[in-house]
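User: Round two. Same drill as before: sequence, then structure, for each protein.

Assistant: Same drill it is. First protein:
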Amino acid sequence: MSQTPTPTVYVRMRSRIRIQRGRAVKLRDIAHVLASSEEQENRLLELELLQPGPEDGNLILIDILQIIPRLRQILPDVNVELMGSGHTLVEVMAGSGKASKSLFILVWLLLFFGSALTIMNFHADVNMQEVQIRIVEMLTGHRDEHPYLFQLAYSLGIGFGMAVFFNHLFKKKWNEEPTPLEVEMFLYQQNVDQFVVIEETERMHKQNQRELNDDERA
């Protein structure tokens, strides 16, 4: 007599997602699922994992160990095969998630004038004007106290060099390589996520330990 094979479900969790506050988090939001049939996949993907409330804060950690018991409520004795990381960070957003135009303009102006002052202060420290006057004198043979043409070309060269370095001009990218700023932001986000995961894991462990101690006293 042949035995019914144990169903196997493959789960690959996303590292981080964003949802609006008040919206339930389903399995399809945080993971890719592969089951033996499309019907099983649809049932699992519609599984509601939690409903974030104000007490949960804006960052919630969902671990694979929280998901497996819920999967087994739908498919008893299911064999769960995890692919990759075993947790997902859920960022709960209170608003629409779109930055306001006034805030964008304010930040842009601060960065623009801050960068301009930084460049001008650097040029003043190294006496860039005298250097440019000397270069023009070497090229033309006569001294010009105000080499505006050279300074204009130099200023345009700084802008062009920054655009090439950051691989960006407005919304246009020169190639598919990430910019240095994107790489730094990615590494920063990874470090933040890792810190939050460790903190949330420790908090959940302490909470489970307290609940276990309370059960033993009862």
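Second protein:
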Amino acid sequence: MMSNSYYFRKIHSLLGVIPVGFFLLEHLLTNYEATKGPEAFLDQINWLNDLPLRLLLEIVGIWLPLLYHAVYGLYVAYQSRNNVSSYGYFRNTMFMLQRVTGVLTFLFIVWHLFETRVQVALGNVAHEALGNTMHDIATNPVIFTLYLVGIVSATFHFTNGLWSFLVSWGITIGPRAQRFSTIITMGLFVLMTVMFIMSLTAFTGTEFSVPVEAHTGK
């Protein structure tokens, strides 16, 4: 494995942006529809469910790349030797945070999937009731706080990982380009975090405590 670590790391970096990063962005836009109300959120859920070959697309385009990225990322985190205490440089700190948020994000994704997608697959929750499920999650102060930690970890891990991707793939070469990409990626981190928190807060609304049919009269 060590002899091929260069290629494993390249694949890990690439999959973290394409398609795992795209999936995070899609998830952000889907959940952000909750700020427009239960009907808009349900419409987005139904649109995703109506995609052709949805299950195949999810397995090949999301779950397998995510599994590789997560497993190899945990291996890298275990093998890495952080030297923040010795040097304290900004990038060393970001390196350490990348590893920490990677572990937190992995735990958060597993937990979140169990509460939502797994429950739908088991037949315990209907797709139409995901808004209600998120309402129950968001209105629990302890779980709401844990979700905030998960959200910040996921958005930081993606955006800081995007910075590393640009460097490792030779897109940003030199200190000036890398400083500029730091500003862009950290700006994206703030934007995505705010949008995710707005989405989570939207689910606390009482309109999500009842089925969509109660609003539409259907």
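The chain has a mean pLDDT of 90.

User: Perfect.
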